[in-house]
Amino acid sequence: MRAAKVLVSILFLAMLASNIRLISHWSESRGVYDDICYLRQAHLFQRFGWQGLDTSLARETDGYLASKLRSIGYPDWSDRTRAPCHTLTTDGSKSVMTPPPGTGFVLALFPEGFQVVPLYVLANSIIAALALYGVWRARERGALTLAALFGALSIYFMINPTKASYSMAPTMVVCALTGLLTARLFVEEDRRRLLMIAAIGILLGLSASFRIANVVLSAGYFLFFGLSFLIWRSRETFAAGLALGLAFLVGLLPVFAANLVNSGHPLVSAYGGQDTAPPRLDPEVLLAYLRDTQFPLIVIACASTVLLWRFAGHPGVRKLALLVAGNLVLNLAFFATHPVFTPYYVIPILMQSLWTLLFAVVLTRGPVRGSIAHEADGPRPAEMLSRL
User: Fold this and answer.
1) 3-class DSSP state for residue 55?
2) CB atoms within 10 A of CB 91
3) Largest distance between two CA atoms of the chain
């Protein structure tokens, strides 16, 4: 087992090195309009500090946006009324950016002109580290095989499709961290359970700062903890749901602040058009997902969830599988009825689900704390969570 883990670790590090080599040659002017907006948000933060939340085009006094648009050959680079991913506020008083501030904030942590490469290198390194953690926590050959296969897949995905949008790099990191914490919550005995739930809530809230659609990643969690309280009506289930909800709102504070500054109300987003259209089934969108490489991953995630629920010996893992299943159903239903298709829309929920399932497997296999091998020692955390 140890020799196999060393070999897998070498493979992961080789893949990481290959990714970093590719990333080091990336250009920040690749002709994608959303990229320009994320970079403009970063520029505003570096120029104005926290006041950079205000993305009004009236603050465009240094020609940064026009210069960026001109560099990618945008024909109307000098016409502010046609600036991509900007929209007029409801009262028509100003034009502001539609994306939330999180991606621009993390880009602003790096020097202007060299922001995308270090962001992706850092995100790739974190994903590789979590994949290595999964491998070295595995105590059985089956768990090690799963950790090796999924770890390689996750590192590969950090190039394609993650490169499609700058918002995907931090989103993938949040999905992996959320998966780890969720698995630990249901598998390992920890008296700081409410703190762990709060950490999950904050991460889920923060994910919306990178992509507004990421807010749906929390749907299954609220469904699970909400139903738990309705079924058991105990102090523990109420405290768990309250901790999740309050922490989620804390994580959403950057989005609320940006909405307040740009749209005049914390709950009013700058998004418009198709992004805010009511849900409807569109055969073209459904066919696009069926033909896309996301579809096999959807099948794998759904099948893995069913198999884990069916064969899990740990009762906490069964509850975790139910949470993941609910989250998958709600997220897939949302994007199936969303009028816009992209090759990466459902990747976050799929990766969050698969990370959660993987860590549930490696944390419950073999003689590790919280495993079924110690079930006779006393009540398991999953039994305590039966009141959730």
Assistant:
1) coil
2) 8
3) 72
**SS3 at position 307:** helix
Closest CA to 85 of 32, 30, 44: 32
Residue in the structure block whose two tokens are 């040659």? 25
Rg (CA), the chain: 22
State both tokens at 84.
Answer: 């991509």
> Helices (DSSP H) in 215-314: which residue ranges?
219-232, 235-251, 253-263, 283-291, 294-311
Residues 6+ apart with CB under 8 A from 101: 41, 45, 52, 53, 209, 254, 255, 257, 258
Say if residue 258 is in the same domain as residue 366: yes
Alpha-carbon distance values, 344 to 78, 120, 283, 334 (Å): 31, 16, 18, 14
**Which residue(s) pair with 85 in the sheet?**
none
Query: Alpha-carbon torsion 156, 157, 158, 163, what sign?
Result: positive
**Residues 222 and 103 occupy one common structural domain:** no
pLDDT score for 118: 98
Shared-domain flag, residues 99 and 167: no
List the domain range (segments joined by +) for residue 168: 126-131+157-387
- Residue 151 placed within a domain: no
Predicted confidence at residue 170, as pLDDT, reads 98
Tell me the range of 99-108, 188-197, 278-287 where mean pLDDT is highest.
Answer: 99-108
**CA gap 220, 251 in Å, rounded:** 17
d(CA 158, CA 176): 12
In this structure, are 173 and 276 located in the same domain?
yes
- 279 within domain boundaries: yes
| 21 within a domain of the structure (yes/no) | no
- Going from the C-alpha of 201 to that of each of 108, 161, 228, 259, 333, the distances in angstroms are 25, 26, 17, 20, 22
- Structural domain count, the chain: 2
Let me know: does 251 contact 204? Beta carbons within 8 Å: yes
> Are 108 and 166 a contacting pair, CB within 8 Å?
no
Of 154, 209, 158, residue with least CA distance to 26:
158
Asked whether 244 and 198 are in contact (CB, 8 A), the reply is: yes
Q: How many CB atoms lie within 10 A of CB 250?
A: 13
Structure tokens, 169: 């790099």
Whether 213 maps to a domain, the answer reads: yes
Q: Is 105 helix (H, G, I), strand (E, B) or coil?
A: helix
pLDDT in tens, 310-348: 988 778 999 999 999 999 999 999 999 998 899 999 999
